[in-house]
Amino acid sequence: MLFRPYLLIVLWIFSAFAVAEPLVIGRVSSNITKTVKSLEPIANLVQAHLGSTRFDSVIVRVAQDLNQLIAWVNAGEVHWVTESAFAASRLINEAGMTAKLARFKKGQHSYGSVLVSLSETSSLNDLLGKKIAAEDPDSFSGYFLIYMQLRESGLPINQLGNIRDQEHNSSVNIVFSNGEKNNLMWLKHGLVDAAIFSDLDYQDSKFFPDLLKSKTQPIVQTAQYPRALELFSRELDQKDMDAISNILLALEPTHPAMMQYDKSTGFRLTNKNELSLLNSIHSFYLKEKKLGHF
Do 154 and 62 share a structural domain? Predict the structure, then answer.
């Protein structure tokens, strides 16, 4: 009978090592090397400070697209995701993730979109038959938010292949420019009737000159959304989520890992209004998907 305590100790040590696994952080990106360099330092810092026997290392997983990332999360292969509001809305509703923290980037915790038009275009109805420049189909602030507002206003949308395509008179015509600087140039030279910008860039006179601002007007301003969100999967219990959150909340903006993490400057807990906005995005996405628009 004397061997039993020793046997229990051996079994406890064995089980502790047996359950050790890597802490897996994920994101969608087309640049694997850049993403790993950005995410690995912050994940290593968190894993080192957790003081848990569960996680003994870190893995960064880079998905080709959001559907792949959702599949990984549902398969229990990713613990932590850092993503934009649109991606977060799908990860919450389709993979059961918890959006615990909002992240500050370059000192800014939220942003939205603004649709800026030439002076003769002053309302949404004036956009029928007009041409709008958007950044690209995957841009949240440079396309999606304004697209959502136009669709919810009941306006028909026609997507043009390039800037030279003829507009449809009965639709709002959207053309992708491949960048906000192109949006700015096209609007300045009258190649489009309106253009979509991040409200942060619109408010920056170094990006959007005051002279051009005096010749244009904002006709749509969207709600504000977190710059980025930290989401945790069902593979983490509440204790794990709270521990990771507290480590991130305590980080100083000047910490090297923060600078590498998309030039992050802080974190804060998400609020009910933000979570409600994320659910609204997902409801809109599902409605548009049924119509074949996604």
Answer: no
